[in-house]
From TrEMBL:
Transmembrane segments: none annotated. GO terms for biological process: ubiquinone biosynthetic process. This is Ubiquinone biosynthesis accessory factor UbiK. Required for efficient ubiquinone (coenzyme Q) biosynthesis. UbiK is probably an accessory factor of Ubi enzymes and facilitates ubiquinone biosynthesis by acting as an assembly factor, a targeting factor, or both. Residues 77-98 are annotated as: Disordered. Keywords: Cytoplasm, Ubiquinone biosynthesis. It comes from Kosakonia radicincitans. NCBIfam families: UbiqAccUbiK.
Length: 98
């Protein structure tokens, strides 16, 4: 969630940049700007910088683990190829008529 202080700061800046006639409505206009900003930013489904950084670190660790697992799988596949047992020669059938 976005820091409420930031929203207040933006609302104040917008209010101050308005023409003098509108600014005379005072806190009502600033309050309405703040509410509108909050509502619109909520709809954007944003994440905080802290949350983004945490998820970036999780992704990096996951990629590292995946690389290690891929390497291990490759090693195991190579071991399996070198340790393959050759099939035993076929045993001739026994003749029961003797």
């Amino acid at each position: 969630m976005i820091d409420p202080k930031k929203i207040e700061q933006i609302a104040r800046q917008v209010h101050e940049s308005m023409p003098k006639g509108i600014r005379e409505f005072g806190e009502d206009v600033e309050k309405k700007i703040r509410q509108t900003l909050q509502a619109q930013l909520t709809r954007l489904d944003l994440v905080s910088r802290e949350e983004f950084d945490v998820q970036t670190q999780v992704l990096l660790r996951t990629r590292e683990k995946l690389a290690l697992l891929e390497q291990r799988l490759s090693e195991l596949e190579n071991q399996g190829k070198s340790a393959e047992v050759k099939p035993a020669p076929a045993i001739p059938p026994v003749d029961d008529q003797a």
